[in-house]
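Researcher: I'd like a structural prediction for the single chain below. Treat it as a standalone chain; there are no partners to consider.
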Amino acid sequence: MQLSFRHVLSSLVLGTALSTAPALAEMTRSLNMNGATGLIDMPSGDAQDDATFSFSIGNIGPITRTTLSFQASERLSASFRFQTWRDWDTIIPGDERETDRSIDLRYQVLKEGKFVPAVTIGLQDLTSRGMFASEYIAATKTFGDRLKVTAGLGWGRLGSYQGIGAPFGDRPPVDPTGTPNADQWFRGEAAPFAGVEYRINDSWTFKGEYSSDAYLLEDDERGLIDRDSPFNFGLEYQRGPNVRMGIYSLYGSEVGLAFHIILDPKSRATGGVVGTAPVPVKARPARAADPEAYDGGWVTQADAGPILRENLAKRLAADGIAVENLAYTATTVQVRIRNGRIDAGSQAIGRTARALSHVMPASVEVFEIVPVVNGIGVSKITIRRSDLESLEYTADNATLLRERITVTDAGAVPAFSLGDENLYPKFRWSLKPAVRLAEPAKGDIGLRLSGSYDFAPGLVLSGSIYKQLASNRDSATPSTSILPHVRTDSGRYNEFGDPALERLTLAWYAHPAENFYSRVTFGYLERMHAGVSGEVLWKPVDSQLALGVELNYTKQRDTDGGLGFDEYDYDVVTGYVSAYYDFGNGYLGQLDVGRYLAGDVGATLSLDRVFANGWRVGAFATVTDVSAAEFGEGGFDKGIRFTVPFNWALGTDSRRGFGMTLRPKTGDGGARVDVDDRLYESLREYHTDGLDPDWGRVWR
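Model: Treating it as a single chain, here is the predicted structure.
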């Protein structure tokens, strides 16, 4: 077998050297069966393109791995993995452990050059129970446009076969609580691994590898597979840029299958959003040619305001934009808008400015556009009409226009302002299919009836009822947590709350002073907790920093999804001091310090990457005074989250999307009440850090 592997490698190298075939495109950075950049079962030194998001399913006999991976930067990537074993208790009856969740991190310390390989250091399963805990250093070099060669050294699980010694000392026992086992990293026996990738053509790739994973758990302990050889071979098929699949001969006894979906959040799957075309800016006549057009006497006409507002509302309705208020003088107009459909704030601003150029008399030179979210103005974008007229067909017109506009605090509604009597009070409702996932392969589908009643600007009554139609969730069992069961009984809410009142709240949003915003929400805040939640946020429109304070009083609801409360009558006061910071290039950081639902005190650190088209991928970790033993399996609260906007995939105007939060293990420590429309995310879209990344769409 060893001779055969060397023979294959030699043949590939020789074939590449002698090949006279035309040059192919750059070799794809492929994924392994763990959903991480690599060979077949081993990692490689490559890194995916920046921002690549992938979903992978790998199957080896009775073992299935489902993985989400994200290339957070050009060098750093992370993976979240669910591993499932069928027939887990074949050898040890009664042991019901069938799944494991783990998190990986990889960092490419050296990019590939003409003479140097790409080198990556990785941590696998760094915060779980340590069943797959391992570390590695992998180097990959590309030869020509067909061949890649990888060699590496692994520790932990990847150092379990044919080790060469422990260069950094013995490996201590794993801490099974789920806290990072940093004292284990790169300790213990180290073992080499290696492999090749040979691209036959643009669609097909051959892979071969020598594995350093002895599969002690699955082979020796459980008898789930037979590991007869360290060599793996396979063929992979690439279908376009987004789909890759493979079939493999593994460890001399098993057949493996892998399927990968590779997505690029930086670009839209459909190539762009298909919507109504913008109308051109209506240019005014030259003042010298028609001086009467610039006469401001029209402001004295009693019916001027209602007519202007009605005409503007008709034009903007086609784009899903409602006119909240209109105020004007002979030279300036301020319009407050509610954007209900367009996903980019800059595009909504551009459509409004165009509409104003058609509606407002020629004497009006200054357009003040105030986006309204939850009834409050969040910023004021001031545009000179003459700049719109002169720049519309100029090269790089978006950049030039951005240099000339100002973004400031929205301020108060002008004293003389014409509101739309049809906006308040306003009732809206919808009945739509919904999906609730507990993990990538388990959850339920159902119908969600939602409704809202806007009494006045900033005062909203809203709620939702969910009815389950089908589910593959496991039956819920009562939690054994020693902490108040603020989250670990969530399965019982899914099982017994059908149908369930998810939310029923009365919320008041306000802008009490310059740079300050507030929210008070009362009622059934989420499916597990009811009460009152209040928040104040300081966020200047042009600041990268925001500061907030939140205070909540909640009682735990009954599991039946009705109006009652749980039998233990658990209530708690929670609160947080929060700091938000925009690091630029779409990276947002958040630090929350305070008291959580289980009464524990600590802090949550979050880092998200937000893309101009609505994609969002992030990670978070919460550490409180709850010990790892009290928290239970997982050690502390941590996880990843992502949001995929529907318009990215469908190419139609929509502000809706699909989001999910994944945790290695749900515990009661570090839990927060889930309140809709917290202030920072509601407001940020129309501040400079939200407008600027997608400002190019202002002319669309």
